[in-house]
Amino acid sequence: MLTFIGLGLYDERSITVEGREAVRSADRVFAEFYTSRLVGADVADLEAAHGVDVEVRDREGVERDPEPILAAAETGDAAFLTAGDTMISTTHTDLRLRAEARGIETRVVHGVTAQSAASSLTGLQNYRFGKAVTLPFPYAHGGDGVPDSVRETIEANRERGLHTVVYLDIKVGTGPTGPDPDHEEYMTADRAAGLLADGWRDALAVVVARAGSPDAVVAADRLSALAGREFGEPLHLLVVPGDLHHVEAEALVGLAGAPESVLEE
């Protein structure tokens, strides 16, 4: 059996009860934290909370060399952990398909996602979101500023009146000069706002920082204004709203501190 378990958003307590039981009953527990991580807990915290040893795999160890995971699931119960939900923002469908092809039973235990939290915290209605994008560090895509694909997605959503979740790049084990096992870098919302402001200086945007934590921050303003503010420790994301329902507009003022003058334009 191979069980994919979402850990939720913040620390070792964010997992569901079902997920906690699945972790504790597994013979071996694997995890990856190169696509996202828990901001309030490290591997030692997870091990102590659940009474297990966690074997952390890097990207290559999941995507190119999954044999240890599959072999463990073939002969016993293996758990595979990621922050958030294992099959939404962080998708491991390929690993699941490999397991199924070998006759290994699989299941998914879901966790809270950053996108659902962003909707909940901002007051923006979840069915009014369009396609999400990830904003990479400029060095990661070999260009300057914002990739055309990101701009085109945001514009397409805005033309349809839809909101855009902009996930912010995470680099673990790879830096500006190539592979670096000690490199860990998280794009901040102010940096992302500065990059996007080159195309939409006066556009309204919403920062969501540390969703799921006790000190989560939600702040709405023009991109140019958000670029000049600091939002503390990661993880951060941005939302670029489309057309606003009046309740959504009220929520951005009341919950995110949006200037009423921006919403009136």
From TrEMBL:
<comment type="subunit">
    <text>Homodimer.</text>
</comment>
<feature type="binding site">
    <location>
        <begin position="113"/>
        <end position="114"/>
    </location>
    <ligand>
        <name>S-adenosyl-L-methionine</name>
    </ligand>
</feature>
<dbReference type="InterPro" id="IPR014776">
    <property type="entry name" value="4pyrrole_Mease_sub2"/>
</dbReference>
<dbReference type="InterPro" id="IPR035996">
    <property type="entry name" value="4pyrrol_Methylase_sf"/>
</dbReference>
<dbReference type="Pfam" id="PF00590">
    <property type="entry name" value="TP_methylase"/>
</dbReference>
<keyword id="KW-0489">Methyltransferase</keyword>
<feature type="binding site">
    <location>
        <position position="236"/>
    </location>
    <ligand>
        <name>S-adenosyl-L-methionine</name>
    </ligand>
</feature>
<keyword id="KW-0808">Transferase</keyword>
<comment type="function">
    <text>S-adenosyl-L-methionine-dependent methyltransferase that catalyzes the trimethylation of the amino group of the modified target histidine residue in translation elongation factor 2 (EF-2), to form an intermediate called diphthine. The three successive methylation reactions represent the second step of diphthamide biosynthesis.</text>
</comment>
<feature type="binding site">
    <location>
        <position position="211"/>
    </location>
    <ligand>
        <name>S-adenosyl-L-methionine</name>
    </ligand>
</feature>
<dbReference type="InterPro" id="IPR000878">
    <property type="entry name" value="4pyrrol_Mease"/>
</dbReference>
<dbReference type="GO" id="GO:0017183">
    <property type="term" value="P:protein histidyl modification to diphthamide"/>
</dbReference>
<dbReference type="InterPro" id="IPR014777">
    <property type="entry name" value="4pyrrole_Mease_sub1"/>
</dbReference>
<dbReference type="InterPro" id="IPR004551">
    <property type="entry name" value="Dphthn_synthase"/>
</dbReference>
<protein>
    <recommendedName>
        <fullName>Diphthine synthase</fullName>
        <ecNumber>2.1.1.98</ecNumber>
    </recommendedName>
</protein>
<dbReference type="GO" id="GO:0032259">
    <property type="term" value="P:methylation"/>
</dbReference>
<comment type="similarity">
    <text>Belongs to the diphthine synthase family.</text>
</comment>
<feature type="binding site">
    <location>
        <position position="168"/>
    </location>
    <ligand>
        <name>S-adenosyl-L-methionine</name>
    </ligand>
</feature>
<comment type="pathway">
    <text>Protein modification; peptidyl-diphthamide biosynthesis.</text>
</comment>
<dbReference type="GO" id="GO:0004164">
    <property type="term" value="F:diphthine synthase activity"/>
</dbReference>
<keyword id="KW-0949">S-adenosyl-L-methionine</keyword>
<feature type="binding site">
    <location>
        <position position="88"/>
    </location>
    <ligand>
        <name>S-adenosyl-L-methionine</name>
    </ligand>
</feature>
<feature type="binding site">
    <location>
        <position position="85"/>
    </location>
    <ligand>
        <name>S-adenosyl-L-methionine</name>
    </ligand>
</feature>
<feature type="domain" description="Tetrapyrrole methylase">
    <location>
        <begin position="1"/>
        <end position="226"/>
    </location>
</feature>
<feature type="binding site">
    <location>
        <position position="9"/>
    </location>
    <ligand>
        <name>S-adenosyl-L-methionine</name>
    </ligand>
</feature>
